[in-house]
Specification:
With 220 residues, the protein is an alpha+beta fold. The chain has eight helices and five strands. A five-stranded mixed sheet has the order 2-1-3-4-5, with helices on both faces.
Length: 220
Amino acid sequence: MRIKDFSSEQRPRERLCKYGPEALSDAELLAILLKIGNKQENVIEMSQRLIAMYGLDKLANCSLTELQQIKGIGEAKACEILAAFELSKRVHCFANEKSPLKSARDVFNYFSIKLGEAQQEEFHILMLDSKNKILREERVSIGLLNSSLVHPREVFKAAIKEAANAIIIVHNHPSGDPTPSKEDLEVTQRLMEAGEVLGIRVLDHVIVGKQSYWSWKENR
């Protein structure tokens, strides 16, 4: 059944206008983004299939290429999905930037959406002012964490330019287990020593897993 054959009470866009977005299901919200379905299924059926197969969390972390490999998703629809999820991630991060970071849990909450489902290791730094509010975030590298990828020069270059008072280093484990490796601990120690020389404190190293985190500070 085509969407235009639905009554106005059943159409997602009309329901949103009348009742607000919170009244719509995940599939109905996704259907508004996708706009149209295909010859085999209407847009709500397509949305229900995508969510049933992948879940919103997996869709949120698919690349443009991965999305286009899904039946019924071309470049235009893939771009719309990517844009919507990226806006959601940015809103989440912006909301957390307003308050000082008080614990490793705050850092995990800030990065959980961005890194919790990432397929590769990413190394980020959070640059903080004297009140531990975020000045800026920067991704330093992508790939397995090691001393060659995460050189102090690259880590502290942006922090010096930003006149940061301190930094927090963050990376993820795609396996979901945040337990640090020997390399993780060695890199942390090296960066902390470099921070002491430069006068920019490394407050913590937080490793982000899928549902939990590990903190250097909490495990000292």
